[in-house]
Amino acid sequence: INNIDKVKPQCSLKKNSSPFIERLGWFKESVTVSFDTISDVIYSANATSGVRDYSFNSNGLGDNKTSIQYTATNGTTHIGYVVDKAGNIGDCATSIKLDLTDPKAGTITMKKNNNSGASISNGGMVNSNVYISLKAGEDEGSVTSGHYTTKYIVKKGNSVVTDSTSDSNTYSEEGNYTVVVTTTDNSGRTNVNTYTFLIDKTLPTCGDISGESTSWINTSRKISVGCSDSSSLCSKTSFERTWTTSTTTDFIIISDNAG
């Protein structure tokens, strides 16, 4: 009997992550590379020696290592080797793109009424409409899969009022607002920035008045008035003013934190 097999065996590799997340060939976490198919090729009629062994190490044929965990950075090519019983060695390859760095989250700018209005800081309280504008995030790190999307969700209390990628929006109703900006890269990694603001267009209410009197004195007189506000709260618990001359009608201005 004269058995001759001169053809290299064949193999293919597959990539898996758990949970599997891939966009445009990019992965966001460790990837397992494993053999998908392994076969010997028929050289002539019924002439195949059959697979003897397979490995990810050409020098390690004989260890039957069927998978490898990949945790490095972008661009590494993994090569699998398969040898048949005649000693022919075949190979197969796959390249992995891995992005292990979260993107830089997008930001919003908040202003009173419109884009020309005064800036509002994060957590600000105002008595006007609030205009917000979005700046998209970007991917970061030595290896980047690229920016995929930046969106923002606006809640008034517990109710979602906006879920959008638009450049800007304006809000006029009174209430507490939360804005969450989420940036996603092409590997599926995300990062967020969170903002809050309060719109209070209702005037505060005057409370108890103390210090006023119709009796005559020869010194100055200080009068104070309490304040209540259920939204942005009063900027002080009471407001006072001192008079040095007689008056029958005058006023004390009270204010809340929204202005």
Write down the Rg. 36 Å
**Most strands sheet:** 5 strands, mixed
**In which range does the helix fraction lie?**
under 10%
Number of strands: 20
Instruction: Count up the helices.
Output: 0
Briefly note the structural class of the backbone.
mainly beta
Beginning-to-end CA distance, first to last residue: 101 Å
Explain this structure to me?
- The protein has strands spanning 10-16, 22-23, 26-27, 31-39, 51-55, 67-70, 76-84, 89-98, 107-112, 119-120, 124-126, 130-135, 147-156, 159-164, 168-171, 175-185, 190-199, 205-210, 221-228, 238-243.
- With 259 residues, it is mostly beta strands.
- The radius of gyration is 36 Å and the shape is rod-shaped.
- The termini are far apart.
In short:
This protein is mainly β.
Give the SSE layout.
Layout lengths: L9 E7 L5 E2 L2 E2 L3 E9 L11 E5 L11 E4 L5 E9 L4 E10 L8 E6 L6 E2 L3 E3 L3 E6 L11 E10 L2 E6 L3 E4 L3 E11 L4 E10 L5 E6 L10 E8 L9 E6 L16
Parallel strand pairs: 3-8, 11-17
Antiparallel strand pairs: 1-4, 2-3, 4-6, 5-7, 7-8, 9-10, 9-12, 12-15, 13-14, 13-16, 16-17, 18-19, 19-20
